[in-house]
Amino acid sequence: MDGPERAADARTPQKTEAVRSRAITPRTILVLGDGGREHALCWRLAGEPGVERVLVGPGNALMGDVAEIHPELTESDALGVLALCRAEGVELVVVGPEAPLVRGLVGALAAAGIPAVGPSAAAARLEGSKAFAREICGSAGVPMARGETFTALEPALAFAATLPAGGCVVKADGLAAGKGVTVCADLAEAEQALRESLVDGRFGAAGARVVVEERLLGREASLICLCDATGACLALPAARDHKRLLDSDGGPNTGGMGALSPLDDLDDDLAAALVRRIHLPVLAELARRGTPFRGALYAGMMLTAEGPRLLEFNVRLGDPETQVILPRLAVPLAPLLAA
Predict the structure, then answer these.
(1) How many domains are contained in the chain?
(2) Which residues lie below 8 Å from residue 325, measured CB to CB, with a gap of 6+?
(3) Residue 170 gets which letter from DSSP?
(4) Rounded Cα distance, 331 and 218, in Å
C-alpha cells in the first residue's frame, strides 16, 4: 500500500508480504451479521478478484446487490451455520459481531474443518471480560488508565472517590452491545452508574462485575490489526468513531454513531509504533498463556498528553469503523482474512 492508504506493518515489509503470500483467496465466503459492518464487508469482498460468491446471514434487505441473503441464519445458531457452510461449499466464514466469537463459534467451525476469521473463545475473552483484558495488559506492560475491578457497590464507590477530580469511567465487565460504558463527570454520576449495574442489574450478568477507571482526557482513536496464529500483525488504516448519542459529544455512549478515516493526528508511523507498544505485547502474552490470537484485534485508545493509553480491546472489526476503513484498502481483503 502506498501513501496515506498504506496499512502500517509493525514488523517489516517482508513480513507483510509473507502474510499475503501464504493466503489463497477463498471463492465462497459467508459473512455473519446484519449491520453496516457486515454490509461493508460484503461490498468489499464481492468486488475482489477470485471471490465468486458472498453469502450473508441473517443479513438485511439492503444487502441483496452484494451478497446472497440467508435471513433464516442467526449468529448464535452454530449448527445452522455449519449446515449452510456444507451445503454451499463455504471456504471462509467472516464473523462480524462479538457475541458468537465469545461463545466459541470459531472453534466449532474449526472442529468441522471450516476456516473462520476470529479468535478462539479463550482469546476472545479480551473483549468478553474487561477485567481479563486489564489482567493481560498488566502482564504485557500495555499502558491503561488506573482502575480496579469490583462486584459490590460500596468498595467500588470508595475507589471512585480516590480518583482525581474530573470524574471516572464505569464499565460493565461483560458484553453489553457497546452500551456498558458510562463516563461520569462526578461521584454522584458514578454512584448512579454503579447502582444501575451492580444493584439494579441493568446489564444482567454482564454488569454483575464492573471495572472503575480514571477518566482520561484526549482524542479517541481505533487501530485494528489483522493477526495470524504465527504472530504476524498488519494494521489497517486508523479510524475514529463518534460514540455519544447526541451532537456536541452529548448524551449516553452508543455502539457508534459514525466514523472517519484517515486521522490527522495518527499517521502510519505512529500507527506502527502503537502496534509495537500495544498489539504485539498482548499477542505475545496470549501466546505465552497457550491461547494464540487469530483475527482482527481492535485497540480503542485515548491519545492523551502523556501518550496513548488503551481503553479497550475488541476481537473483531469495528462497527462503524469498518465502513470507513475498507474503502481505503489498496490491496484485496479476502487473502488477508484467509491468512
Answers:
(1) 2
(2) 224, 236, 237, 239, 261, 317
(3) E
(4) 32
Residue 25 CB neighbours (<10 A) = 20
HSE-up of residue 294 (Cα within 13 Å, Cβ side): 17
- Kind and range of the H or E run holding 268: helix 268-274
* One domain, residues 52 and 187: no
What is the domain range of residue 116? 3-129+218-338
- Tracing cell 501513501 back to the chain, one arrives at 3
Q: Which residue has the higher pLDDT, 339 or 204?
A: 204
Q: Cell numbers of 109, please?
A: 467451525
Grid coordinates of 98 = 462479538
What is the Cα–Cα distance from 231 to 294, expressed in whole angstroms?
A: 9
In this structure, are 100 and 183 located in the same domain? no
> Do residues 173 and 306 share a domain?
no
Tell me the pLDDT band of 242, cut-offs 50, 70 and 90. confident
pLDDT digits (tens, 9 = 90+) for 122-168: 999 999 999 999 999 999 999 999 999 999 999 999 999 999 888 89
pTM assigned to the model: 0.91
Tell me the C-alpha distance between 89 and 213, whole Å. 47
Closest CA to 157 of 165, 146, 168, 166: 168
Q: What is the mean pLDDT of residues 246-253?
A: 74
Distance of CA 71 to the CA centre of its chain: 24
CATH code for the domain of 192:
3.30.1490.20
